[in-house]
Amino acid sequence: MCQDDHVLTCAILSPLSNGALCQCGGEREAHGSVALGDYFSTAIVNRWDSAQHSSEYPTDAFGELQFTGASKRHSYFLRLSWDTPPSMVYTLMTAHWGLPLPNLVVSVVGGEGRTKVKTWVREVLRQGLVKASQSTGAWILTAGLREGVGRCVGEAVRDHATAASSVSLNKVVALGIAPWGLVDHRQQLVNPQGSFPAKYYVKNMSQDSCCLDNNYQAFLLVDDGSVGRRGGTEFRAKLEDYISHQRTGIWGSGSINIPVLCMLISGEASMLERVDLSLKKSMPWLVLAGSGGLADFLSDVLDNLVDLKDKVAERVKRHFPSEAESDKLVERVTSPVLGLQALSIYQNRDFITIYHGEQEGPNDFDTVLLKALVGASKHRASADASPYNEELKLAVTWNRVDIAKSELFNGDIHWKYEDLEDSMTDALINDKPQFVRLFTENGLNILDYLTYGRLESLYRSVPDGTVLYHLLQRRLVERLGTAENLLTQTFSFVCYPTNPFFQVARVLELLMGDICQPFYYDVLGLEQISSKRRHASKLLRGECLYREKRCLFPWASLFVWSVLQNRSEMATFFWEMTGESVLSALSGCKILRELSKLEAEAENKLSMKELAQKFENVAHDMFSSCYRSNESRSFTLLIRKSPVWGGTTCLQMGMGADARLFFSHDGVQSLLSQIWWGDMKRNTDVWKLLLTFFCPVLCYTNLISFRTDTLLQHNPPPRKQEDQHQGEEKPPKRPFIVSRWREFWFAPVTAFLGNVLMYFLFLLLFAYVLLVDFKPPPPSGPAITEYVLYFWVFTIVCEEIRETFFLGTMTMRQRIRVYIQDVWNNCDLTAIVLFIIGVICRMFTWSYGFGRDVLCVDYMVFTLRLIHIFAIHKQLGPKIIIVGKMMKDIFFFLFFLMVWLMAYGVANQALLYSYDPSLERIFRRVFYRPYLHIFGQIPVEEMDGRFVNNVTLIQSGYEPCRTQYSNWLVVILLIVYLLVTNILLINLLIAMFSSTFSEVQANSDIYWKFQRYTLVVQYHSRPSLAPPFIILSHINLFIKRIIRKVPSIKIHHFVLQLRGKAANKLMTWETIQKEDFLTGQNTIQKSSDSERLKRMSAK
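The structure assignment produced for this chain is given below.
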């Protein structure tokens, strides 16, 4: 891009040149032959002009700049012509140089040269301008030279950048715009190919000079063909005007254009034309009265308007005693008063703000900047616009909520919804949660604000480069590719004209998985999940009528939007505002943990994990508050089916989010224990259960105690209200004999106990068949016991099919995905497949042996399945997790072991045997024998064959003789191998095991409580009878559910749907608990030591 810029050089030699110098300021010898040739009459002029008397050629100075001996940081620079389009330069700075987009541009005019800057002006620049610019994310434009005001600004930017952290404050960009011909040592920057970097060396950095200042991030060196002259004001004014028409925020999403303010410090009389030029374009000016020169003159004239020409002349001569053209200056200033042509300095005096910095001080300089810009904006705004709108938009742009609270939201101004709408969008897109909170507290109704169309625009504003943007882009390409066969084209999610809701819904479906129903499908008219691919393309091409509709759950939608972008403070605020606080926190935790798996940047991944853990802690603490308030309602809260989050529950979302801390809460475990024991008391001894299991009549005695306050007695009240409201009758009460029978046999603990006992019998039967009664193929076999085994496995298969395809409301694809994701389901599937293969093979004579081998291996798989059964035990459960994690450690250990084993095995074989064509012996010696060496089996002599040296005999299968001369090297290799494997690797494995054991054992209670939920859900949904008698339960369930259409009652133990008053009461109660929780958190935060120190420092 830099090659498209051009620079100028003087091509005409003026006859008025002073000997060796031309009117352009350059030396006579530096001009071309055309300029030196007096015989060219067209080359002889009386007055030199840059536009007419200079030639243009491509720039020869651009790239990066390194100040040798001063700073390691590189700055960008570009030599360009004075008539270069400002749009090209702005794009270069933001897109190619990577300078952050400004929220404010302050152009410091005047104070150039080696005139000493007053002390109070230095303080205004340091404590006022740079500090205010740092809090707003501003660009500061100066000449960028080490002299006058430019040097002061550079030093102030350097000091503030060193003292302030990049996290808390925005970075100020100091941009130097200087005349190329004025810069000292500029020849060091010349390189037609570009400099990356250019070495810029300055001898004396302490004295003022026209050298470039090393504290600036970028330099624009304006070339008009002159040498040694101060200029470049025309290009600078055009650049300021162009920037003032660009939008703030991400991708220009802000509510206002970038505010540009010119700041006049001192200045010569010639700068009056510069002020006049900017004022004609409604550019606001801030004049530092008392800084000298033109600044004092303008403040004097505007503060004391006079109508006498001689008094103005006195002021001109007082402020510019050395000016030769003071009379002309008097004419320009006094012409409006005398009725001549109106000058913009007088007509646009409302765009000029006089600042008496010597009296006011630099502390409130940011407010001064805001007032100056607001004053100018008010005169540019329409008459019907609110006079405070521009001030609010500037405060939002600068992210100065303190100014907004003190000046705009102090109770004196009545804000309308229309006044806050654009600023709210700006605050949301550019991540300013404090303003979002301020607007919602001062009249902005979120129900009126958030429509589906505006929510779409928020998703379109996602910055590129984020993981959310890539996910949305990928879903867009998939939709266009599958529906319209446009995979070869490139699309932008932000610029694509159709709605992005389908892509958002697909991304949320990817992140949330099968825990809840897909988001926004009802809005798009895609409620039928199975047909969405077929109808999506046709439907989404039509008119989007939903965009004007209000968002059904606005706070939850904004919460999801902020969580997807990993905006911590914004997401926390939206969580505070949304309902179903426990479930919302768990949902945020789930989304963030899934996003962290897809994030490539380590820093972003860590921040996502931290925010996910924060939401899990919030869910845990919030539920603690609810549990302390009301135990029964807190249980209902855990199993309540949410209409906001796709019909899921807190327990389901917590399981999907891997929220171990949440499941370790006593309230969650109390509910699980209550469901696990059913109507029996939790302190019932196991031996009583076993005795009653084998003698069911004992359930009618007092051997087992039953509760009266069951879970089903906690939950039905809202259901009774609903049933009465719907006019349904109360179901009849069962007789004692039937009810007590159901209370014992329908408890999950009874089903678990029966399955454990029957599974042990199954393993005994399987072992008996393999060891004693495994008959030959038909017609001699199989035996009766083997047929019983086949039927037993058949009932197990039936139960697996029921659990996979006949539970829940998920689609077939989702059911299969959930089934495969479980490790123990894979174990069951492997065991069943192996059993089927083994049974088929054993039925034929040619594969009888192979079938028996498969069944033997299958018995091992069925036996390992016992591990999962003991996960319910408080001591054995964590040990199972430890074993699982240690298996991962073993794989890493085996990798290192195989490296050393192969290295030693191959070398040992090659050294001992010079020739051996037998692959079987080679494999045994290279892998198997070194593996036995680890356990101490080191054979001194070979005892398994005859040794020969004949090649023919060796090829026929004889054992070759050993090579004797390399035995000493083999011994050394053996020593090294045993040292590494037996001492280093084995101890490394032990250390890894110890680390895993310590990690899990420290949190064993949390791990056990988390995995306990899965086991409780599994046996709660199982029939009372265990295989093989479970076939009777399957027949009974088929008759009740399929034929008689009787709904299940046990499902309400884990999923309860509330409507009407019951749902409203629970929601109100949870909201009150959240308010109490937030109040307590704020009290703790205010009382902390850090907050005390902050308040003391603020005072």
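Interim note for the steering committee: The chain has a mean pLDDT of 79. The longest strand covers residues 74-81.
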